[in-house]
Design goal:
Blueprint: H1 8-17, H2 28-42, E1 47-48, H3 60-71, H4 85-99, E2 108-111, H5 113-125, E3 134-139, H6 143-152, E4 155-160, H7 167-177, E5 182-188, H8 200-213, E6 216-220, E7 251-255, E8 269-273, H9 275-278, H10 283-289, H11 294-306, H12 312-326, H13 332-352, E9 356-357, E10 361-362, E11 365-366, E12 372-376, H14 382-390, E13 394-395, E14 397-398, E15 409-412, H15 421-435
Parallel strand pairs: 1-13, 3-4, 3-5, 5-6, 6-7
Antiparallel strand pairs: 2-8, 7-8, 9-12, 10-11, 12-15, 14-15
Helix pairs in contact: 1-2, 3-12, 4-12, 5-6, 5-11, 7-8, 13-15
The protein binds pyridoxal-5'-phosphate (PLP).
């Protein structure tokens, strides 16, 4: 057996120091802390695949608009809670241009990242109907959203979509929905962590079943336009970003600026509520929050209580980025294609060294190369794989954390630099040499 690039004792000692009982089950933030400590002690640089940080510079047009807004003095003025007018208008236009969906500016609301958007939407959905006491997550998914449910004290159900693609998705969804207790359906598309993308047929099933059973669909578009197999970058020109909004008017969309505009630090995303849902009156919701409609509950009860709006200058930044995209001056998809290029190389290196892609296809089409992909290694659980890779200077999180039933890990490409590919290959070869014969 060849030596791993890192001394096992040092890694183990740091795991102990951080009081992580099972490193395979560690959260993203725990892995970040651990790798920082090991890097600090050994000077060995990790191939860091654990955290979904953008890794690209922020969109220039946003930064310029934000500086301009600050110079004009917006920092001293409370922003209007449901968003400044130019942002709302550009957001509605963006939804029209890139999704081919009509929505009023009123329902386009800035939030402190998509995180705040989902927090408020989960809370409102949790009280629309006393009989509907659970949300339904189509997993695998973004772990922090489950934490939000836990913090809110709300119930949820979940299933791993791995074995339920195509027609089977409709059957599985109906199994849950027909019980009558589901208030909302949540998923990300493209999917964090698996990078699968629902087909239009699948989105249609979700939309139609939501209509049939009165569930709100929460579509998380944190990676809007980033299914690079098709070009969604031209405003007003098909193909458009696929969406459930084509098949139901009972939806909330979440459009994050963090990845598509590399604007994560300013914490300004968008929540888009359909016109019908915005003005809908739910008697149980009215009783709970004393506000007439779903939209007014979100704005005047939840957002008002939690943060009283979103950073004023960041709203100007987002308005400018959306305007530039809407007018065709800024191709935001081109700017993030670098992720797809990295994923292609990295997937090849892993597969050549004994790994397999876990979520491999969208029905018969291979998944796109994008921000994340999933990996397994024969004979190892996902948790063992996370732990073993740490000794080889490679960090990732286990699929365990994401509601997946598959054994494997999530790899995020954003932090890995092309200059590290040679080193990644060396470490993977060594890993495979040491484990394949066992
Ligand atoms: C699926 C998904 N939803 C939401 C978010 C968070 O978005 P924001 O930074 O806008 O809060 C992320 C970030 O990684 C994500 O992957």
């Amino acid at each position: 057996m060849n030596d791993s690039p890192l001394k096992k004792e040092i890694v183990d000692q740091k795991i102990k120091e951080l009081r992580i009982s099972d490193v395979g089950k560690a959260s993203i933030r725990e892995i970040v802390a651990l790798v920082n400590l090991v890097e600090g002690e050994t000077g060995v640089k990790y191939i860091r695949m654990e955290m979904g940080v953008p890794g690209l510079p922020p969109a220039k047009v946003g930064v310029a608009a934000e500086i301009e807004a600050l110079k004009k003095g917006v920092a001293s003025i409370y922003p209007i809670i449901d968003g400044i007018k130019p942002l709302k208008e550009q957001a509605a236009q963006f939804v029209k241009n890139f999704m081919d969906v009509e929505v009023s500016a009123k329902g386009c609301i800035p939030t402190v990242g998509s995180m705040q958007g989902t927090f408020c939407a989960f809370l409102a959905a949790g009280f629309i109907d006393k009989k509907k006491d659970a949300a339904l997550f189509i997993d695998p998914g973004f772990p922090v959203q489950k934490q939000q449910m836990m913090v809110l004290g709300l119930k949820y159900e979940t299933f791993d979509v791995f074995s339920f693609r195509g027609e089977k998705l409709g059957v599985k969804l109906e199994e849950f929905l027909s019980k009558g207790n589901i208030n909302s359906i949540i998923y990300s598309n493209p999917n964090n962590p698996a990078w699968i993308c629902f087909t239009d047929e699948e989105l249609q099933m979700i939309g139609e079943l939501a209509n049939k059973y009165g569930a709100i669909v929460m579509e998380d578009l944190a990676y809007f336009g980033m299914d690079f197999r098709r070009d969604f970058s031209q405003p007003g020109v098909p193909p458009y970003q696929p969406t459930v909004a084509k098949y139901t008017d009972n939806y909330v969309l979440f459009i994050s600026s963090s990845k598509i505009f590399s604007y994560a630090g300013q914490r300004c995303g968008l929540m888009v509520i359909s016109d019908k849902l915005y003005s809908r009156e739910f008697p149980d919701l009215q009783k709970r929050f004393e506000s007439p409609t779903f939209g007014s509950t979100i704005v005047l009860r939840l957002l008002y209580s939690i943060s009283s709006g979103t950073s004023h200058s960041a709203q100007w930044a987002l308005a400018a980025m959306l305007e530039a995209a809407n007018s065709g001056k800024f191709n935001f998809v081109d700017d993030v294609k670098a992720y797809g290029k990295k994923a292609k190389v990295m997937k090849k290196l892993f597969v050549e060294n004994g790994f397999e892609i876990v979520y491999k296809t969208d029905l018969d089409e291979p998944i796109a190369d994008g921000f994340y992909f999933t990996l397994s290694y024969p004979g190892m659980t996902g948790n063992q794989l996370v732990a073993n890779l740490l000794y080889y200077g490679i960090s990732a999180i286990a699929l365990d954390n994401t509601g997946s039933n598959e054994e494997g890990i999530r790899a995020c490409v954003s932090f890995v630099q092309p200059e590290q590919f040679d080193e990644l290959e060396k470490r993977l070869k060594l890993f495979n040499d040491n484990f394949r014969t066992r």
